[in-house]
Amino acid sequence: MRIQLAQQSEADELLGRSPLALLVGMLLDQQIPMEWAFTGPHTISQRLGHDLTAAEIASYDPEAFAALLAEKPAVHRYPKSMAARVQQLAAYLVEHYDGQPEKLWADAADGKELLKRLMALPGYGKQKAQIFLALLGKQLGVQPSGWREAAGAYGEEGSHRSVADVVDAESLVRVRAAKQEAKRAAKAE
């Protein structure tokens, strides 16, 4: 299945071939529109002149990396703090997975273990980890036993709750509508 989270062909193509780009996009997916967040890895790679590597990002001068993310158009609403988070994520991947993000899920015994590994990533809380686990299962075929249960409601088949369910422009509209409804329901309580 083709990734369509950025809703831009070149950015989505990078997300589909680079597990690091996908992890970084998910990390950036807060307080900005989803498409902007998932276009971020492509913008960073264009500015670097090549695909992202965890080792390069982890060893990049922090001020220079923050400036890279802050260039217009900025990669995120908060480029400096998100640059630090991206570098923390990259450093963690270098330290624990030899800079190869796919090792996170390659040998996970089950969904519970994979969720635990995702939650250990800098910038990934339980909800973000569950959404990413659902994305892996639904769109990339990474389906260790119990993955749907570990992903919680985000793993439900046929749901439209998160980026894990965005496969085209129509599903993006459905996910946005579901999120709006959830916000309305939360305010009503």
From TrEMBL:
Q: Where is the HhH-GPD domain?
A: 24-180
Q: Which Pfam families match?
A: HhH-GPD
Instruction: Tell me which InterPro entries the record gives.
Output: DNA_glycosylase, HhH-GPD_base_excis, HhH-GPD_domain
Gene Ontology molecular functions: catalytic activity
Which Gene Ontology biological process is one annotated for this entry?
A: base-excision repair
Q: Read off the NCBIfam families from this record.
A: HhH-GPD-type base excision DNA repair protein
Name of this chain's protein: Fe-S cluster assembly protein HesB
Origin organism of this chain?
Nonomuraea turkmeniaca
